[in-house]
Amino acid sequence: MNRLDSTGLKRLHREWRRRGHGRLALVLDRVQNPLNVGAIARTAAAERVEHVYLGGGASPEEPKAAKTSMGTERYLSWSRFDDPAAALEAARADGYRIVGVELATQARPLHELDLTGPVALVVGNEDHGLSTVTLDGCDAVGFIPQLGRVGSLNVAAAAAIAMYEARRQQWTAPNQTHP
After folding, report:
1. What is the per-residue pLDDT across 108-154, written as a single tens digit (0 to 9) for each?
2. Are 122 and 79 in contact (CB under 8 A)?
3. What string of H, E and C letters represents the secondary structure of 103-168?
4. pTM of the entire structure?
5. Beta bridge partners of residue 81, listed in sequence order
């Protein structure tokens, strides 16, 4: 086994893009740390996120965020809103179902939720998670099952797992659509 060269990488990525993908967006609910926003932006660009709705907090264009994303924020489009409720409203108006990622009552394991079709995944503030207003505005809420002694994940890690799970479901059911 050998590492892929640049031509091999291009072929591999082209093959995965051909498998089709649903519309995927992110809503950031007051994510404050630019390093987290940068890490989220890099993963979002890698997973071909269509749009990022910023509900307060840091922006991908901040120097620390841009450094962490290694310039990949240029592949993203985003909109800033004064609060998470406005960001959710904009995502819903753009045709997305809103799926929160949070450890909350009535949340289901993320892999059990239907993440096919146009989905906006919502991740929250580093200290407080999703706000009550955001939780109330979600169509569904999922959590990432954890087996260890740590009570929660870093928001960038949680966002990466959620984006990948959405793409995994879309690759295995590329023709499934939602109203």
Report:
1. 999 999 999 999 999 999 999 999 999 999 999 999 999 999 888 99
2. no
3. CCCCCEEHHHCCCCCCEEEEEEECCCECCHHHHHHCCEEEECCCCCCCCCCCHHHHHHHHHHHHHH
4. 0.90
5. 55
Asked if pLDDT for residue 176 goes beyond 60, the answer is no
Query: Residue 20: is its pLDDT beyond 80?
Result: no
Sign of CA dihedral 142, 51, 169, 95: positive
Tell me if 27 is assigned to some domain.
yes
Q: Look up residue 92 and give its two tokens.
A: 């819903």
Residue 87 inside a domain? The answer is yes
Q: 101 phi and psi, to 5 degrees?
A: -115, 105
- Could you tell me the residue range of the domain that residue 121 belongs to? 23-172
Summary count for the chain: helices (H), strands (E): 6, 7
Q: What CATH number did the domain enclosing 96 receive?
A: 3.40.1280.10
